[in-house]
């Protein structure tokens, strides 16, 4: 049975072999915004301790200073500055907020007294501090999830309705983390959740594993290991299935907007190219430039399925050394001679990303040429700006580095028509 998505041209449908998925309920245009989604839960991707972590994680932990409610980067003058008591949590020395407004909102939601005390206790727990970054961040998730059960029971039910069931992995993690969380229950008169149990903890970890999205630190060309600043659970975005050649991609602008406006953590999902009504809309769960074996491994280990999308079917016959990115230069020369590729409608036709049909050895090269960001260490996907008002036509935006690029670059020398980036 279909479920309409509010304020969106999408519906949630059952897709054979994939569970629920997002489907276009009318034809969609390149660049069109098809969903704005606000998180029901956000938690920092930081460890509780910087000891025994890799140097890049330690650098992140000590240098990153963001508001613990809206997750915007704090201005340097506020970072760790004890002379700004109005933006420090009054109950602990660890958490900073960008404004009194954010602190006030946090105290009745994301930073309740119980959550604050729970995090402070974990900060001093030597057993947890010896654990991997992943496990320490999972502890943060559990605290945030049990806090959600208190402050917004309806959102907690939404979290429970997302895909994900206990498995050996989440049970093992729950067996370690649940006793720690149990010991925090008596910290406040507010009980974390009536159904608090080892089983529930394991189920929650499974929901997190399949549905959490990373909000990344700002892009830098010098950094090939971009860190995650925070993770979020987005109730509608969680319905998108994966495709290694997606037809939509997500944008977030965490450091954007005005302080106090909490929509900075919203996701905006935009169409990469046109699709007809009834087509499933998919995101890629990671950068599209990963090779076949690494994609298959990640999808199986992290999401529990073998991908058999069109691209995987083609690339399964390639050797690991074959790379679409390297072969792209060769393909680009061929494309320049062929007018057929200029027609956007062809890209959006039934063979979505495959204007040449399956007879070509390298059918998806057009996608990489047109929709993959070529900036060093970026790996982002380009989608046209939303089609309206005075927006210049044919301008593509990268969803990782924010670079704007004219679509006309396809027909010119590389980079010639780049559009200057705006802040
Ligand atoms: C974030 S959820 C997506 C929505 C989910 N299908 C549902 O019913 O709620 C991720 C899960 O969807 C399924 N999934 C996503 N993409 C898939 C694909 N291309 N093929 C098969 N299963 C897929 C996997 O079970 C994966 O763990």
TrEMBL record:
Region (Disordered): 403-423
Signal peptide: none
Compositionally biased residues, Acidic residues: 408-423
PANTHER family from the UniProt entry: HISTONE-LYSINE N-METHYLTRANSFERASE ASHR2
Annotated organism of origin: Lupinus angustifolius (Narrow-leaved blue lupine)
SET domain: residues covered: 8-286
Domain of life: Eukaryota
InterPro entries the UniProt entry points to: ASHR2-like, SET_dom, SET_dom_sf
Chain coiled-coil ranges: none
UniProt name for this protein: SET domain-containing protein
